[in-house]
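Posted in: Structural Biology > Protein-Ligand Complexes

Title: Requesting predicted complex, iron/sulfur cluster in pocket

I'd be grateful if someone could produce the 3D structure tokens for the following input. Sequence and ligand are given below.
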Amino acid sequence: MKETENKILADVNGAVYTLGIASQLSGIPAHSIRQYIEKGLLIPFKRDSMRHLFSMNDISRLKHIHHLIQDRGLNFAGIRALLSMVPCWKIKECAKKDSQECKGILMAYQPCWEASKKSLACKNENCRECEVYTCLSNSAELKSVLRELF
Ligand code: SF4
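-- Reply #1 --
Done. Output follows.
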């Protein structure tokens, strides 16, 4: 039983850690992690039971969000604004017509993964695995993504 459970957990893109473990590994209190999720800064993996699970990538992202808040003085609104400015339409190479209708592009100050109506390029995508979402794992990575685009 334990082995089956472990296999299931290993199949979900490394999302194997519960909130308590993610809190221990990142050094960030569980209530702060819940807040980051509520504010749309982190998309946790959800099991059928609706329990949140976290991967090592999530742990890095949590640490980076925490760093931006604690050491760089950004608040939630500032981080959301930063995330909303990642040029998803360029990264996903959206067709012009598509990008004119995509709410992910049109919404100001909201990350694209919160959009109710997405372009064709995003419709069946798992945002957790998308470069637009994952590029916040650290600032250097975000900067290098932007440098390649412009
Ligand atoms: S797949 Fe999700 S994260 Fe990626 S560009 Fe589309 S909406 Fe944004």
